[in-house]
Write a structure and sequence with these properties.
With 198 residues, the protein is an alpha+beta fold. It is globular. Helices cover 34% and strands 30% of the residues. The chain has 4 helices and 10 strands, in the order βββαβαβββββαβα. Strands 1-2-4-3 form a 4-stranded mixed sheet, covered by helices on one side. It has a single domain, classed as Imidazole glycerol phosphate dehydratase, domain 1 (Ribosomal Protein S5, domain 2), CATH 3.30.230.40.
Length: 198
């Protein structure tokens, strides 16, 4: 791998002001500040377990709701991955991972196909971690999938405690993306598609 795969994105709307830097081939370092403490925790462990270096600052309308912040960070993170991966030459393309978190088990499967599709099958008995609604994890996943243009399948096999559910999902997402973005030495100069581009 000759060049560092990295991207910096800034996005400002009437609802959020985001600055994000991603290093795909990182060491799991992160500096996260979104104004949503639980989301900060999820992004920190996402970076750590995906071996991504990730810096995120977001000033959002969190006095209204957390929705805009979580969704827009998902958009910008997806854009950063897409920019950093460029033509995707040499990547494995597919990745999957199962993560247990105490009583919870989550699986994530990803295809960096150039096509956005989300299948999200998560039902937890309790949907809140303090004031953070777990449905926002789905909104984050949808935004990431759309911006990155990837197939993203997320399933909770089982789980009860909402913190464990969310943490298992974010860790599985990190490891699946790490696997999919790795360079395959056998085809490092090739696009991983018979179409010639993805």
């Amino acid at each position: 791998m000759s060049a560092l795969r990295t991207a910096s994105i800034a996005r400002k709307t009437a609802e959020t002001d985001i600055k994000l830097t991603l290093v795909v081939d990182g060491a799991g370092r992160s500096t996260i500040s979104t104004g949503v403490p639980f989301f900060d925790h999820m992004l920190t462990l996402f970076a750590k377990h995906g071996h991504f270096d990730l810096d995120v600052t977001c000033v959002g309308d969190v006095t209204v709701d957390y929705h805009h912040t979580v969704e827009d960070v998902g958009i910008v993170l997806g854009e950063a991955f897409k920019k950093a991966l460029g033509d995707k030459k040499g990547i494995v393309r597919y990745g999957f991972f199962f993560v247990p978190m105490d009583e919870a088990l989550a699986r994530v499967v990803v295809d960096l196909s150039g096509r956005a599709a989300l299948v999200y099958d998560v039902a937890a008995p309790t949907m809140y971690v303090r004031d953070f609604n777990l449905i926002l994890v789905k909104e984050f996943a949808r935004a990431l999938s759309n911006a990155l243009a990837c197939n993203l399948h997320v399933k909770l096999d089982y789980g009860e405690e909402p913190h464990h559910v969310a943490e298992a999902i974010f860790k599985a997402l990190a490891r699946a993306l790490d696997a999919a973005t790795l360079i395959d030495a056998r085809s490092a100069d090739q696009i991983p598609s018979t179409k010639g581009q993805i």
